[in-house]
């Protein structure tokens, strides 16, 4: 059920958008109202989650380290794996975000000749890299729907992405790779027993949702062509707060857009928040320099305390009357 349930939900969501636009003609709802509501909910959700993270105390430096710490001058420090400066933290973060460096180290325990040993496991790294990079390229390419005139860098990106020159319209490599990446990530959760055991519906739902978005987009580009000029008019209308009627758009576009809206609303409350979350993670954004600099929680606020001196000042008489000892060091202001 934890696999089939999320799949059914995504199929039902796609069917809902299809039926409401194809048969009920609720174009304005699906082409204007829902996209605006989704963007507002996305922004509110992101702000709430980020403010909550930002307010949590960071009493200690807890960077994850896996190399030699900065120490004596003749001991070589692992500057990226155990950064002691802001530049080191920045370098490690950039490499982590762009190349998923920590996933590259992924390994698994295996029993060989009745001995346990670690072997490298690079498939997750490769699948994650494929999916995230192709999604990024696709989202950047979509900017042509929102920018007039289309900037040169987007034209270059489109040409590079379609350089295999297969078929017409040109096949984008990112379209193939996003599906391969997502299917791999799904297959990994389904086929590896241990991963399947710990996987929940919330692990499958985003994969099916993203597959739904990618497949509906691919269908639009390679099977049922949509009127790109019309889509652009609608998108520009939404962005400039002068919405134009989306009546003439094809049904498959509404399905694609609705699934994107669901993703926007779902994003802030899901595990997908790991994307902005990594920048806020104290295990990643702090330098390991506890021995050089005293760490003070940057969010520290003055805490109201009640000292023993104030306590004795307040209750001294009562304490004396019941025979409790008083601290003679505390000088009473009452004399
Ligand atoms: C998470 C966001 C989105 C993802 C991952 C996504 C994914 C895709 C994919 C994989 C394609 C196939 C063709 C291509 O790669 O260009 C596509 C096509 C398309 N998408 Fe999206 N999409 C997203 C958001 C949107 C939004 C907000 C719109 C606005 C209406 C949109 C409109 C379109 C259109 C019109 C096409 C057809 C392009 C063509 O025929 O060249 N997409 N999308």
How does this model look, in words?
By secondary structure, the chain is mainly alpha-helical. It folds into two domains: 4-304, Up-down Bundle (Fumarate Reductase Cytochrome B subunit); 310-335, no CATH class. Helices cover 58% and strands 4% of the residues. It has a two-stranded antiparallel ribbon. Strand 1 and strand 2 form a beta hairpin. The longest helix has 29 residues, at 27-55. The radius of gyration is 28 Å and the shape is extended. The mean pLDDT is 92. The structure holds protoporphyrin IX containing FE.
Write a compact overview of the structure shown.
The protein has two domains: about 5-305, Transmembrane di-heme cytochromes, Chain C (Fumarate Reductase Cytochrome B subunit, Up-down Bundle); about 310-335, no CATH class. It is built from 14 helices and two strands, in the order ααααββαααααααααα. It has helices at about 5-20, 25-55, 85-100, 100-105, 125-140, 150-160, 175-190, 195-200, 200-220, 230-240, 250-265, 275-280, 280-285, 310-320; strands spanning about 105-110, 115-120.
Labels describing this entry:
2 strands; Fumarate Reductase Cytochrome B subunit; single chain; 4% strand; two-stranded antiparallel sheet; 2 domains; mainly alpha; 335 residues; binds protoporphyrin IX containing FE
């Amino acid at each position: 059920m934890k696999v089939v349930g999320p799949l059914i939900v995504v199929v039902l969501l796609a069917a809902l958008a299809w039926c409401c636009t194809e048969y009920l003609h609720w174009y304005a709802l699906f082409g204007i109202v829902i996209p605006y509501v989704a963007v507002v909910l996305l922004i509110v959700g992101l702000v709430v989650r980020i403010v909550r993270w930002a307010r949590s105390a960071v009493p200690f430096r807890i960077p994850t380290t896996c190399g030699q710490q900065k120490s004596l001058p003749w001991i070589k420090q692992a500057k990226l794996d155990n950064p002691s400066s802001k530049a080191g933290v920045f370098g490690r973060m950039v490499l982590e975000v762009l190349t998923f460096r920590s996933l590259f180290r992924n390994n698994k325990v295996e029993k060989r000749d009745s001995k346990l040993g670690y072997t490298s496991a690079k498939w997750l790294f490769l699948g994650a890299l494929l999916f995230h990079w192709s999604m990024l390229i696709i989202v950047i390419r979509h900017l042509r729907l929102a920018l007039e005139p289309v900037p040169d860098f987007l034209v270059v990106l489109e040409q590079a992405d379609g350089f295999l020159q297969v078929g017409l319209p040109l096949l984008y490599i990112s379209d193939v790779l996003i599906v391969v990446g997502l299917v791999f990530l799904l297959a990994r959760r389904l086929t590896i027993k241990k991963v399947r055991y710990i996987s929940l519906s919330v692990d499958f739902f985003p994969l099916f949702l993203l597959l739904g978005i990618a497949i509906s987009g691919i269908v639009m580009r390679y099977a049922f062509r949509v009127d790109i000029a019309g889509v652009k008019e609608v998108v520009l209308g939404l962005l400039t707060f002068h919405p134009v009627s989306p009546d003439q758009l094809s049904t498959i576009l509404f399905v694609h857009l609705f699934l994107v809206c669901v993703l926007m609303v779902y994003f802030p409350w899901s595990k997908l928040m790991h994307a902005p979350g990594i920048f806020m993670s104290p295990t990643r954004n702090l330098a390991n320099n506890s021995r050089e600099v005293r760490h003070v929680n940057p969010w520290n606020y003055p805490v109201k305390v009640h000292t023993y001196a104030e306590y004795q000042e307040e209750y001294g008489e009562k304490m004396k009357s019941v025979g409790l000892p008083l601290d003679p060091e505390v000088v009473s202001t009452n004399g």
